[in-house]
Amino acid sequence: MLTEPIKSLAKKYFPEIVELRRHLHMHPELSFHEFETQKIIEQQLDNLGLTEHKRMAGTGVVIEIKGKDPSSKTIALRADMDALPIVEKNKVAYRSRNEGVMHACGHDVHTSSLLGAAKILNDLRNDFTGTIKLVFQPGEEKLPGGASMMIKEGVLENPRPASMIGQHVMPQINAGKVGFRKGLYMASTDELYVRIKGKGGHGAMPHLTIDPVMIAAQVLVALQQLVSRKAKPSLPTVLSFGKVIAEGATNVIPDEVYMEGTFRTLNESWRDEAHQLMKQVAKGISESMGGACEFEIRRGYPFLVNDENLTGRLRGFAEHYLGKENVEELEIWMAAEDFSFYSQEVPSCFYRLGIRNENKGITSSVHTPTFDIDEAALETGMGLMAWLAVCELGS
Fold it and tell me: Is 141 a catalytic residue?
């Protein structure tokens, strides 16, 4: 068993990976613009003698670490690379130096952890059988999603992995622990862009207008009723609007109202049905009140499903590596992830890495300006990824 060698190597490489993560955190790059991050990844791989890497999806990097009998079985490990358009508020030495851009979702952790796993696996390549494909993926935070692009460019071919494993930080779980869930885990996501058109005028003479504000209010309420009355109560569904713009004034009724929202669920048939219902309801109400409606739906990521057999095995491997008390059961989460594209193609498992430490004040959620991690999680992250890869090759 390679348990102790992997733990020992994770401890050995931990200081390097902390410094690497801090460097990535200081130099975040937005989706599909991860040019410097790509160079860092390639340099790290070159330093290990892993020079046969290739670029995919513009700024992505793929490399294979081959053990004994490399054609026997292949599994893939994935890390995303991109940051978010957020101004960091953390007062730490490694805070973002790229103003307005921040690694607020932990992708710096994912990338550095996978590079740490690469160091471990490269040292142990004579001790396992098969091939481990490392996928450094760009653009998870932006449609159409770097995963879909890498799949189109053949990341799941030549060789095709028998399984795909992804790791993502979770601030709700303490550092040193991880979480798994079999089956349906994360939601599909679609972006909604709605424009309600009416006829503006003086607020004191509403009878001479076609008030798009009132139409929009009716549309918003009616759309929420689709969730409460059309979706099965047992089927998680979320419909939220986060932007409503009516550029009138206290006494000015505007010509139009613009709205943006998101629709998320865990069933593709209901997803398609809901798309049609939302358009019908919004246009029907608008027209019945004398206005008009433009309703655009930008289809996003599909739902994410963790293969039950694979996830069951990996959870068992994780319990052996970390101790059963450090492996938690996850609930369904209505956030979305483009790892879902992989899960639709090959048996996949997307699990969570704990990063929380209340004693250090590290409790902020992802996508916030104060997000940070307990860096002890990096030792867990790189070691566990290497361990799961080796175990899955031998299963």
Answer: no
